[in-house]
Amino acid sequence: MVQLAVTSQTATGRVRHNAPVRNTGAVLAIFILSGAAGLVYEIVWARQLVLIFGNTTQAVSTILTGFFGGMAIGAAVGGRIADRAPSPLRMYGLLEIILVPVVLVTPLTFSLIDDAYRAVYPSLAGTPWLAVFRLVLSVVVLAPATILMGATFPSLVRHFARDAALGAAFGRLYSANTLGAVIGTVAAGFFLIELFGLQGALRVGALCSAIAGVIAIVLARGDVDPTRDATTVPSEPRASAARDGDRRTWIWLPLLVAFASGLTSLGYQVTWTRLLASGTGSLTYVFTVILALFLIGIALGAALFSLLRGRIRDPIRVLGWSQFAVAILSVVGLTTIISQPRSFDPSQPLESIGVLLISAVLVVLPVTIVMGLAFPTASELLRDEDATAGKESGSLLAVNTFGAILGSLLIPFVLMPTLGSPAVIVLLASVNVLVGVALFVRARPDRRGALVGVGLIVALLVLALRPGQIVQPNEWRIAAEGGTLFESREDEIASVQAGQTGATPQLWVGGTAMTLLTIDAKLMPILPLIARPESERALVVAFGMGSSFRSALIAGLRTDAVELVPSVPAMFHYYYPDADAILADPNGRLFIADGRNHLELSDERFDIIVTDPPPPIQASGVSVIASYEYYVAGRDHLADDGVMMQWTPYGTTEQELKDHIRTFSAVYDHVLMVRGPGRYGFYMLGSMTPIDLPEADIREILARPGVLEDISSAYDSPATTIDDWVTVIADQTWLEDEAVRTYAGEGPLVTDDQPRPEYFLLRFLGELSGGR
Fold this sequence. Notes:
By secondary structure, this protein is of the alpha/beta class. Helices cover about 60% and strands about 10% of the residues.
């Protein structure tokens, strides 16, 4: 409906010389679509760049810095341009349309930086310059798109601010954009990637941007140039306490709140994700659920601000109390997380997600609703001038984004390894309280608010200093089960515990139990060595409890081992008394790196490559070392008759297992499959030359000093003599070559673009409904 233009004046005497904004609902709808596309881009690009830079925290933080940095620049620069644009809505539409080809070309640009990274890596590996080079590449490849994306928000704020107070426009758009982000997160995480793959999801996002841009251009027809129109319209009422004099006096306040909001909100998101995901098997859907709930809370809070805005008499006091509320709710949520630890059941993956959902709703939603209310409230402190609405809103968003960048670097690299995730929550809560006290003391002298803040700080200090009060959820679970905790550590990747709750010691990473001291792990390098007795060099991807690395060295192989989580090798001595001697063996080398990345960037060739992906088979990121492209990288780094061994654990449907077998056999001309004697999974051995396990070679390898003793020492070892092992290995040999391909049949492959093991929800639900 077209509004009639009338002449009016705001309560402060400011006159708006603009035509009224039309089609408000339609513009908000396309901004929801834009927000959805933005989250699809973020999810897809992060996954694609991890394949180039590795899945280390350093690499992921570099990617986030490149993404957020472009958004911040776009918001700051785009806001200033929007203030001079004759039609901010048309500007927004053009930004979205230009974004489409930029997005669609990213696969090509990613390929180019992949080549550049591979070329430079050998000379920069092990130096700080490698991180700098990753950051430069991330900015180069992401900046064109993210700067455009960052500029869309202030352009629409400028559009709406032509007949509404800046705070009202900001809150309305912030709510719409966050709602779109929720939709994009759910769509990409639960549906799009499984249905269409990463590239297909990216194209869907580009389609959303194109639709939003075209509709915006259409709606912008007849949009009046505000600098040429003398008509005035009434402005929406703003909070009476936020007077222009106050805005000028406390111009730093909204920026302080925005920065603290970005820092703490990103910090809470990262830390909650780690704590809530503990014991859930690190499924991709776990992270999707947490991110979606985080964004839902923000959207609800922003919507609440829009509803209550006219009743907010003193934005500064609201901001102060909201900071206290965030601190209190976050600490209460922390106690909820710690006291409700989970244990993952691989046969019931959706059950883990359901239990997580309940905890996440209780922990995440209350805090994020308050956060969502607080951030747009800060916009009430901006100078409410029509001509600078884009600049003001863009600066607020840019500062908020820079806070998020600092959080993405400071939290995982410094605070988590130093303090641990539970203590990080207490520290972030303290930051919220200090910001609240600063607001009460400096901007609105309020003795009661300041005293409450001081009291909260004291309470947080007492909580932080009480020994044993703040622990990892898995530590709580081990104690609750009457187990023994040997040691607990946390680094930039995950929390790690060594302990025992049953008959044998265990290793937990992210609250999920890793491979036990089972015979299956000890045989991983031995079986390919039997197939190639002349082998000298081996690579073990995923150190785990160290069984495969140790067995390979005992068998006489010069062995490299790669482990993603830095704290894992530190637990080695709890499982093997000779751990120090093994680590000091000159024939062994241990690398803390992403296994896929290490293999692809290595210039060495190996006789044997052993890969033992961390359980469960559906865990987030596991497909990176269980995909067609990974197997090709393994083949390319093998000697001419080398063997790659891929361990595939049980814990999913037979059809999903066939996908793994089909993918592996698509790369190697010859494949031999052997069941694990411990019955935890099976070995896939691949080579470009024929593979067999002849009795003579079994006897020769097991006769090497220490080998028979090593494999027979496993608690579930089915044999203790060479004769018995000859029988066991023959009995466990399953399928070979064409029989493997016949069993796997026709069907899809696990690829980098289609990480099927991680995205299984629709197939799983289809099987459930089909079985009823």
